[in-house]
Design brief:
Layout (H helix, E strand, L loop, with lengths): L18 H4 L53 E2 L2 E2 H17 L3 H10 L18 H6 L1 H9 L11 H8 L8 H17 L4 H9 L20 H18 L3 H11 L8 H17 L4 H25 L2 H21 L15 H31 L9 H18 L10 H6 L4 H15 L6 H17 L5 H22 L12 H17 L4 E3 L18 E2 L3 H9 L5 H4 L2 H13 L6 H8 L15 H6 L77
Antiparallel strand pairs: 1-2, 3-4
Helix pairs in contact: 2-3, 2-5, 3-6, 5-7, 7-9, 8-10, 9-11, 11-12, 11-14, 12-14, 12-15, 13-14, 15-17, 17-18, 18-20, 19-20, 19-21, 20-23
Organism: Neoarthrinium moseri
Pfam family, one: RRN3
GO molecular function: RNA polymerase I core binding; RNA polymerase I general transcription initiation factor activity
């Protein structure tokens, strides 16, 4: 794009009554030429309840202090006193230093929690409280061992490893506190163990079944209680040892589940990351970046796999999803393992079933994580005018700008910003302004500017809560930039060339896309016999359009750049039909003339003689590679569980009865809603109407 286009939005009227607010906020309205996206700011320090509980009813944003009883009066538990155990530990460490590991190995076994402190075959006439007392003796060992942390250097790493393997989350509350205090003392005295301690805690992020942390002889511990203990330990560690923030940030990235791990594992890990984000204020941005990055990887892989499936395998994926959902409904919280691969009879079939299962699993992971992110963010936007909502939206804008926007072929992740940006007119304004400023900053890479243009057009076209006056303003802004580009490009233009003028074609295609979906918002007035509630009544009427809407498209469509030859054929076809029937513009003669025009004659430089093309293996008679990509990122959202968040905000394509006299199905005034099992989603140009499924 020419540099001359970078400062034109200042001539446009404000988008909304919130523009004054935005002038002082990190997010700027679109009439500002170069808005800052807002520095990522962490909220005030957040902590957990002082009583050691984590009451979900309390706001995570409320300022609180964490208090652990650092002076637990534990002198004797069961049959052993602290002094007795201290002597045992001292003797074991001394023996280990001399090379005698007998007592040291026994101590390791004891501290790992694997040693039985009672005999199940004890005499029935014995003291019935003895087994309970012996089970509790591990507390004494932990209290006593805390006195030795200055001596637990590298030579005692085996002992420390045993302690870190101890299953402490399934024991009682007092043991959880004692264990947490020991970990804090250990890292304070022996910083080299910080990563190992952090890893031992984060390893539990993937656990969601009580059997994973249960300890024989202790009452069952719920998942919620286990998570509270784990996060209280982590929070206390961060409080007493601030350097743990950097190590923890590295560990949570390293331990994030691999893409082929189960939905349950991914969801449990993400849930714990979101809990961590409530109190690890220095890691708030890093945690969300990590979640969005990994979510995008699943998203892109899922879409790539779907694109590679034929119709039969796509149907198998749909069936597998249906079966999985039905089984999950019956089994509750248990893992659902599809048995679709059990019917495979040969190697080829096994390969097919493996692909189907992989796609199905990715869809379920994507769906579950998106549902969780929608649910976590939703309370923050209960009052869209609040500081809390503004802060949360700044974070979403930053995630979008730095991670989502540069990612090609993302299919669903972007709907987080799509949904929450429509919570208020101010947020609509801010998101549109962000896209416009990225699209027209000459320093940005061309591919990023084109993506921003596609996001803007798709948001304005598909956002059901985007007001009509915003649609008109965006159309005016984009039209102004389009005219400026045409003025610059026509000087050297010989004919349509997507490589040289892709920015111009992207912008033209965006305007046609917006017109196809939001044409009613671009109408200024209509004859008296037009019913504004009935789209079919607009057909073949003398409509008055908003100022310059018709002229800006006419000037650019009939320019030497000839965008109708380069833009997506499906979008061009739908635009041509609507423009004709609304007496807006008649472009069919140009489309017919373009059929006789060969794009290869205008291809510049190395490709001009066709030699390089032949060497690359491209078919010179197929011009699709010389046409613009039809990517519009807010195509219909099809994830079955989480789509309910998006549906109220989403403008589905609606055919107009009588629009095309050649169609026998014009009586349908609603687009067919895709069933949940139809998981293979086409792009915006693959359907019969050219703009939707």
């Amino acid at each position: 794009m020419p540099a001359a286009t970078a400062t034109t939005t200042s001539t446009v009227a404000p988008l909304s009554r919130h523009a004054a607010k935005l002038a002082q906020a990190p997010l700027k309205p679109i009439l500002k030429s170069s808005p800052a996206l807002g520095k990522r700011k962490a909220p005030d320090h957040e902590t957990l309840p002082t009583d050691g509980s984590m009451d979900g009813s309390q706001s995570p944003r409320k300022r609180q202090r964490v208090e652990f009883d650092m002076n637990l009066e534990i002198h004797e538990v069961g049959t052993r006193s602290v002094d007795e155990v201290k002597k045992e530990i001292a003797d074991a460490l001394d023996g280990h230093a001399r090379g005698d590991d007998e007592e040291y190995d026994i101590l390791k076994e004891t501290l790992s929690g694997k040693q039985r402190f009672y005999d199940e075959d004890d005499d029935e006439d014995a003291d019935l409280t003895l087994p309970e007392k012996r089970r509790q003796e591990l507390k004494v060992y932990m209290v006593a061992l805390a006195s030795f942390v200055p001596h637990l250097g590298r030579s005692a790493s085996g002992l420390v490893k045993s302690v870190l393997q101890c299953q402490w989350l399934g024991r009682d509350d007092q043991f959880a506190k004692v264990y947490t205090q020991f970990l804090a003392a250990l890292v304070s005295a022996q910083g080299s163990y910080l990563e190992q301690v952090t890893l031992s805690l984060v390893d539990n992020f993937v656990e969601s079944r009580p059997s994973a942390w249960a300890v024989p002889g202790f009452p069952p511990v719920t998942k919620e209680r286990m998570q509270e203990r784990m996060h209280l330990a982590l929070q206390y560690l961060l409080q007493v040892f601030p350097a743990a923030n950097a190590v923890l940030g590295s560990v949570i990235t390293k331990k994030f589940p691999f893409h082929d791990e189960s939905t349950r594992t991914h969801l449990a890990y993400v849930d714990n990351l979101l809990r961590l984000r409530q109190y690890a204020t220095k890691l708030r941005t890093d945690i969300m970046d990590l979640i969005v990055n990994r979510l995008l990887q699943i998203d892109v892989q899922m879409q790539t796999d779907l694109d590679d499936l034929d119709d039969d395998m796509g149907a198998m994926v749909a069936l597998a999803l249906q079966n999985s959902q039905a089984a999950a409904a019956l089994q509750g919280d248990d893992d659902d393992e599809s048995d679709i691969e059990s019917t495979a009879s040969d190697e080829e079939e096994e390969d097919e079933f493996a692909k189907v299962k992989a796609v199905k699993d990715n869809i379920e992971k994507m769906d579950a994580i998106m549902d969780s992110l929608f649910a976590v963010n939703s309370p923050l936007f209960s009052d869209p005018e609040s500081d809390q909502a503004h802060e949360a939206f700044v974070e979403l804008i930053n995630e979008f700008s730095h991670i989502i926007l540069p990612t090609y072929k993302s299919r669903h992740t972007q709907f987080l910003i799509f949904h929450f940006a429509q919570k208020s007119e101010y947020m609509v304004d801010a998101f549109c302004g962000t896209c416009i400023n990225i699209a027209f900053e000459s320093q940005r890479p061309l591919v990023l500017r084109q993506a921003a243009c596609a996001y803007l057009a798709s948001f304005v076209a598909r956002g059901a809560q985007v007001p009509g006056h915003v649609v008109r303003t965006i159309f005016t802004v984009l039209g102004h930039h389009l005219d400026q580009m045409r003025t610059v490009y026509e000087v050297t233009c010989r004919g349509p060339d997507v490589r040289r003028y892709s920015a111009f074609y992207s912008l033209t295609q965006a305007l046609m896309y917006i017109f196809c979906f939001r044409w009613q918002d671009l109408v200024h007035s209509v004859p008296d016999d037009v019913d504004r509630e009935d789209p079919s009544s607009y057909l073949d009427q003398d409509i008055e359009w908003e100022a310059d809407v018709k002229d800006v498209l006419r000037r650019n469509i009939y320019s030497k750049l000839n965008p109708l030859k380069v833009c997506s054929p499906a979008i061009v076809e739908q635009f041509a039909l609507l423009a004709h029937r609304f007496r807006f513009m008649y472009v069919y003669p140009l489309i017919e003339a373009n059929k006789r025009l060969r794009l290869s004659q205008f291809v510049s430089t190395a490709y001009a003689n066709g030699g390089a093309l032949r060497e690359s293996g491209l078919d010179l008679s197929d011009e699709s590679w010389q046409q613009l990509d039809s990517f519009f990122p807010f195509d219909p959202y099809q994830l079955p569980t989480s789509k309910h968040w998006v549906e109220p905000d989403y403008l589905q394509w609606k055919s107009i009865p009588g629009l095309n006299p050649d169609d026998s199905d014009d009586s349908e005034d609603e687009e067919e809603v895709v069933n949940e099992e139809d998981v293979e989603e086409d792009t915006a140009t693959d359907d019969e109407v050219g703009l939707d499924d």
